[in-house]
Amino acid sequence: MAEVVVVENEDAAGALVADTIVSLIRSKPDVVLGLATGSTPLASYRALARRIADDRIDVRGVRGFALDEYVGLPAGHPESYRAVISREVVEPLGLTPELVRVPNGDPASIEHAGADYEAAITAAGGVDLQILGIGRTGHIGFNEPGSSLASLTRVKTLTEPTRLDNARFFDSPADVPMHCITQGIGTILRARHLVLLAFGAAKAHAVAAAVEGAVTASQPGSAIQLHPHATVIIDAAAAAELENIDYYRHAWANKPAWQGI
């Protein structure tokens, strides 16, 4: 069972994530982070940037791997995840740009881009902590419903609900690419620690299916139940459909302080 932590808001979640990552960096200066994009992890990245600045944490050796990338966006497009990761993670945190990788969405090399990314993650020693969001369809990364639980990095076709959700970042829904390259569920499960973030009532059904539902490819987020160290940090609205919410609150309130998340 994943550990479920219900917090007041996104800033409270960000403080928890920042504490955890700072502790990791201090114990392993070349830690490998799995980086999600979208609005969900932004408060966590902001909190981490503040901690790094305030505590003067040396992050020059920190490495990172983005979860996914659109296929076919031109180089330098502001909504490519390469640009987003640079703008929202690398620059604010002061990471070394050359140590942070994003899947290659160039159609000219897409046939081997997944295998190349898998090889790079393996060469880095694997991901130590993977930040995840979850979509309304239950997708993690861009692993839409029906994705194999053993899948590795590969090209996927985005569902219309996902394209509509992401349309807010583009001039129109038609501009959202139809395809992406994403770490597979099997890739994600290899990370040593999963931290899934979700906020708001729109995520409540997906969260309940991921935490308490059957483990099934129809709900990709449910794969976190197979992981030995998965932490789900959510607000009360996202927790609204959880049947065992009282136990989760009790377990968190009585957790030994030395365990962290």
Automatic annotation (TrEMBL):
GO cellular component, one term: cytoplasm
GO biological process: carbohydrate metabolic process; glucosamine catabolic process; N-acetylglucosamine catabolic process; N-acetylneuraminate catabolic process
Chain ranges of the Glucosamine/galactosamine-6-phosphate isomerase domain: 11-226
Keyword Signal among UniProt keywords: no
GO molecular function, one term: glucosamine-6-phosphate deaminase activity
Keywords noted in UniProt: Carbohydrate metabolism, Hydrolase
Domain of life, per lineage: Bacteria
InterPro entries with a match to the protein in the record: Glc/Gal-6P_isomerase, Glucosamine6P_isomerase, NagB/RpiA_transferase-like
Plastid as UniProt keyword: no
EC numbers: 3.5.99.6
Protein name: Glucosamine-6-phosphate deaminase
Naturally occurring in which organism (per UniProt): Agromyces fucosus
